[in-house]
Amino acid sequence: LQNANVSRIFQTLGAEVDAIPILWIAAPATGLIVQPIIGYLSDRTWNRLGRRRPYFLIGAVLASLALFVMPNSPALWVAAGMLWIMDASINIAMEPFRAFMGDNLPEEQRTLGFAMQSFFIGIGAVVASFLPYMLAEWLNIPNTAPAGVIPPSVKWSFYIGGAVFFLAVLWTVIRSREYSPEQLEAFEAAAGKDEYVKARNADYFRLKKREQRLVGTGLLLAGIAFFWIVQRSGLEKELLILAGGLALFGLFMLLAWLFHRSGRHDLGFVVMMDDLFDMPKTMTQLAFVQFFSWFALFAMWIYTTSAVTKHVYGTDDPTSVLYNEGANWVGVCFGVYNGVAALVAFLLPLLAQRTNRKLTHSICLVLGALGFASIYLIQDPNLLLVSMVGVGIAWASILSMPYAILTGVLPADKMGYFMGVFNFFIVIPQLVAASILGALVRHLFQGEAVFALIAGALSLLIAAVLTLFVDDRSYVNAKTRTAV
Asked: Mean pLDDT, consecutive 10-residue segments, the chain of 484 residues?
């Protein structure tokens, strides 16, 4: 619902097309902060509800309330604020889900497990993407409204989505079970997973102090210098986001260094900052794959509505019937790619078994790039559904393969935290996209949003190449154990 309709809501409330990326920025920025914290806390939680499930429930309550409020926003700034609240709440609920999968499945079952997660995500997204279209076409709920008012079809879609989201998560909380920390530790020992053993001794702390002082100082100065350049040269103000991000991260590093100097090595914030630079090798390699994959996805979510309504339907007037028909068709297209993802999810484990997870993911990303690029060549809206087939195949793999690969190298007692850190490489490309895509569309692409999708296609191709260099030894070992 969010991905298919938020840009439409922003435009309805008066946002210019090249300003939409900056309005999306609060959502990923929130995830950058919330997910590692929630992951860290869930690693250390164990109560009557379990380890991850308390966070599922809290996030579901807050996110459902936000879904009810979002389409009733009276002004653009309210809608942008509600997106921030909604995304923070969704992060609280959803971040522990992938760690939950890693907790409950042995290595040889994780490819299938994450593929099944892709299937259910796809099914839910199909229904959500089609909702405005179905309500308008089947139930005759109005699909247009006066200027500055969200159409009733969109409002009722969000109401239904909020109710379903809450009930689905509540069912999971009530019906699922979790292994205790002691059981997980025993499983890990039996599997011989000892790749991530860091001795937190005097030498380690001395290395961390030097590393954090140097990196923190460098990032802080780089952020300040970049901020000054943007201000003085008249560059796009969106670039200040990147400057601020660099400076803020530098300050975090320096703060961790100060805590180390005072001997507070076991403070949660310090442990998180230490672990950030102790990521397993496979995780570091996957980070680059994720960056380029999610840059492309963010370009699609921001600009598909603008690209299709203008490039295919020939209008950018959000009050017109033609624009709203095009916006509804984008919802249908998003439903199709999610439906394809749900179906393809069953095939990914089979292809990975025949080849390997890296090659499977790379092939899927190439097909996604072709889907993105083909939109530029299309004038018949029906043909957009063909493009969505490629996008859906890539989406199925993005939701499963990187996580199946990653969980094989993560320790059980840090699974939630590292899953949260892995979210950095989803959020950072979104921040970059929000910083530069508006300027690119405005100046380089001369207001033609469809070229942002071409940029997304190139980004997916880069991700496909980088995937081939990822070290996935845990999967090889698991296949060998299964064969034995």
From this structure: 80 74 68 82 88 91 90 86 85 84 86 86 81 87 84 92 91 90 81 60 87 93 90 73 84 92 86 84 93 92 84 78 83 86 89 91 96 88 91 93 88 84 84 77 78 92 96 60 42
DSSP assigned state of 50: B
Considering only CA atoms, which of 6, 315, 20 is closest in space to residue 132? 6
Hey, is 47 helix, strand or coil? strand
Q: State the Cα–Cα distance between residues 119 and 343, nearest whole angstrom.
A: 7
The rounded distance, in Å, linking the Cα atoms of 236 and 440 is 10
378 phi/psi in degrees, rounded to 5: -100, 135
State the pTM of this model: 0.79
Q: What is the DSSP letter of 445?
A: S
User: What CA–CA distance (Å, rounded) separates 283 from 276?
Assistant: 11
Q: Which residues on adjacent β-strands are paired with residue 138? A: none
Decide if 443 contacts 242 (C-beta within 8 A): no
Separation of alpha carbons 12 and 149, rounded Å: 7
The dihedrals phi and psi of 361, each to the nearest 5 degrees, come to -65, -40
* Residue where the block lists tokens 């619902």: 1
